[in-house]
Amino acid sequence: MISLVKAIYSLEDWGVFYCDDLDKTAQDATVFWRPEDCPFAIPIQVRAAPAKIPGSWFSLRGLRCRTTIVSGPDGSQHALLFDRGRSVQLLCRGDSINRDRLLVTAEIDITTERAQPQLKTARRLRSLAKFGELRPGLFPPTKRRDRLRLVLQALDGSLAGARYRDIAVHVFGNSAKDWADPQRYAKDRARHAVRRGRALMEGGYRDLIR
Length: 210
Fold this sequence. Notes:
By secondary structure, this protein is α/β, with parallel strands linked by helices.
């Protein structure tokens, strides 16, 4: 399904220029990051495919993912191709990305630090054009996924008023004996997790998209 969205929410302080619903989970929300804050968002040149090139063209029609197209604050066109937490964000230049037959060229500056993440996005877009879906193999889980999940659980507990001892027990599985240990491992772990969670909440989450 392709959605054309005109309204832009003022979320730039969060590094976002459009979000459909702040109450949705990351698996469901449509979020457009500001391209300058997200190196995985790549600019593409779009033009209508000549009829003499049968089959060598790209179209959003028939893709097995949710597609949202928005106009940026400066009138630019952006597209987000999304499926169960996997996404490709495009900054479209030239023709409209919503046409049926397109030639698409990714613009990647290999002299900058954005080159590697943008090349990953280009490979994902190429795979999407070939197979019609955002294949899970091109979106491997990060090594820090499990650690971050515990950090966010600790943050949720702290925001709900839980004590560090409760967090140590219910999030990290520590016992009363662990808590009483003079080495303070359980205490320090709970405190560090909450501190890290608060840092993420207060803007550090942007590091996760870089």
